[in-house]
Amino acid sequence: MNDNLEKEFNVGGNIESALSGQYELKANNILKEAWQLTIKNFLSFSPTIVLLIVLQITIFVVALKMQLGDPSVIFKIFEESAESAQVQNIIESVLIANFSYEVISAPLFAGVCLMAMRHATGFKTQIRHILKGFQFTIPIMLMTLMALMLQGIAGMVLPFLSLYLSMAFSNAVLLICEKRITPMRSLLLSLRGVNKKILTITAVYALVLLMFFAAALFYGIGLIFVLPFYFHIKGIIYRDMFGIRLKVTHSGGNSLNSKKTQSQVFDA
User: Fold this and answer.
1) Number of domains into which the chain is organized
2) What sections of the protein cross the membrane (predicted)?
3) 268 within a domain of the structure (yes/no)
C-alpha cells in the first residue's frame, strides 16, 4: 500500500513578523548569500535572464512601432532641427511603450522572481519555470498597472518618491504568487514590510543600483551577473521578510523512506 503523508512548513519569516519588524535582515548576509546563489545557479539561471530581456525588448519595440510606425524616428530627438511638437510626441510614445512592456511582460518577470525565490530555499530550476508566473497573469498585471500609476504620480511630486515606491513594492509580485494575496493588498503589505527595515533594504538596493550603472559603463556585459544577483536579492529578502511555504511529502509502501519537498507554487 502506498500512503502519502504531507506536511507544510515555513522557511524564513511570516506576514506577522514582517509587519512588526520582528525578524533579522542584515545587508552583508543578503549580499553574500545572493552572490553565492548567483554563482551556484549561473549556468542554469542566466539563460532565463537573457530570455526575459529579449522578450521584454521585443515587446517594447513592438509597442513603440505601434506608436511611431518607424522606431528610428526616435533619433530625431537629438537633431537641432526637430520640432518641439514632434519631440514631445516621440517622448510620449516611448513612455507609453515602456509602460506597455512592463505590464505585458509582468508574468514573465514574476516567473523569474519565483525561480530566484526557489533558489533561496535550496532548489534548482529550469528555463521552463519562467512560465510559472502565467498562472497569476491577471492579478500580476493589475498589480503592475497600479504600482506604475502610483510611481508615476509620486514621481511628478518628487522624483525620489518614485524610486522609493519601486523599492517598497518590490515584494508584491511574490506575495501574489506565493501567498495568493490580492494586488492592492500585496502592494500595501510590501510597503509596510519594507518600511520596517527601510535602512537595510535601501542600502542593499542602492548597491545594486550602483552595480547596474557600473555594468552599463562596460557596454552592459556585467548585467549577465548583476541581473541574476538582483533577482536573488529579491528572493532572499522576501524569504526572510514574509517567509516561503514548503510542502514535504513522505511516500509510504515500498518507498517508506522517500521524501519530496516542493514550494507551493512549483510542481514536484
Assistant:
1) 1
2) 42-64, 99-117, 129-150, 156-177, 198-231
3) no
DSSP state of 12: S
Domain enclosing residue 129, as ranges: 4-263
Q: How many residues does the chain have?
A: 268
Q: Which residues of 76-113 are buried (b: 16+ CB within 10 A; e: fewer)?
A: eeeeeeeeeeeeeebeebbeebebbbbbbbbbbbbbbb
227 CB-near residues (< 8 Å, 6+ apart): 49, 53
In this predicted structure, the answer to whether residue 256 has a pLDDT above a threshold of 50 is no
Sheet of 4-11: strand order equals 4-11, 244-251, 258-263
Q: Cell triple for residue 20?
A: 512588526
Q: Is residue 182 part of a domain?
A: yes
**pTM given for the model:** 0.87
d(CA 201, CA 115): 21
118-141 confidence digits (pLDDT tens): 999 999 999 999 999 999 999 999
CA–CA gap between residue 70 and residue 72 (Å, rounded): 5
DSSP assignments along 101-161, one per residue:
HHHHTHHHHHHHHHHHHHHTTT----GGGGGGGGGGHHHHHHHHHHHHHHHHHHHHH-HHH
